[in-house]
Amino acid sequence: MGFGEYPAEYNPSVHGTYDPARYYGKPDTPFSQVKLGDLGAWFSRRKKSPQATAALISRAFWRWQHKYIQPKRSGIAGFFHITFAAMAFFYTINYKKIKAHRNYKYH
Amino acid sequence: MLSRLALRNAQLMPIMARGAQSMSSAAGDRPVRMEKPSPVRHGIIPEEWFTIFYPKTGVTGPYMFGIGLSTYLLSKEIYVLEHEYYTGVSIFIMALVVIKKLGPTVAAALDKQIDKYEGDWESSRTENMKSLEECIENEKKEQWRADGQKLLIQAKKENIVMQLEATYRERLATVYNEVKKRLDYQVNIQAVERRLAQKQMVQWIISNVLKSITPEQEKANLQQCIADLQSLAPRA
Prior knowledge:
The structure holds 2 protein chains of 2 kinds.
Chain A: H1 12-15, H2 39-45, H3 50-69, H4 77-93, H5 95-98
Chain B: H1 4-18, E1 40-41, E2 45-46, H2 47-51, H3 54-57, H4 61-75, H5 83-212, H6 215-232
Antiparallel strand pairs in B: 1-2
């Protein structure tokens, strides 16, 4: 799968219209239904290449888009998601400085 | 919170929540754009993040998880409540007030705009379809009219055949008349000739007879006539 190409598993005659939010590979147990003990095995089955990671993020992004941005009468939730994601992101990258503002010595 | 009732109710929850999942994209199906956004709780948190807890913890589980997690983060000061936190809290309270006050109005206005936008496209689509259907209708009518031309051509052909027939018959009549005229002419000629010949013959015979009568014969004839008259006279 090159840059800007469809996933290798995607077959228009079988899958129909391309859905960027959909995983076209062989489906594994959904993450939400994985038993805690099987988590290691489940994680070892995942592809961990940069492409796979990028595809994962892309799918998640499109799933979010389809749910909160693309609907005909979408509300304000999507904008708040962006806000909170940005807050979390900047909190993380500034975490070293923020740690200096701790109010208590002992926890 | 882990009561049996909650657990049993929670068994049914994922089925209900599945309807709230994102767009269906089964093989061969065209993805359908959602009308409403995926349901959220408290304005922003996806419904799925709550329902994922239900089979194990019941409906209060996600809240307990949230409270527990934030308690942990705050107590260990992983999340530091520095000055920016209070800025954020004030901003969000203000945002909440604005959204609650203006939200419905803005939403109604935007919905109206969306409806208008969609209506424009839809109407242009239906107008286009209607005009195309009219075109098809007209085309069919024209074809029907063209079929009428066939009938007309047939009639014209019949007309020409009739004209040909009429001309043929007229010519036949002409020929008949001409031939009859000529034959009548011949008949008349012969009649005239015969009449002339007879006349000639009669004249010739009479003149010859008259020529052959001698004066004695005439005299005798006269005497005979007188005698006949005399014999008739006393009886009168």
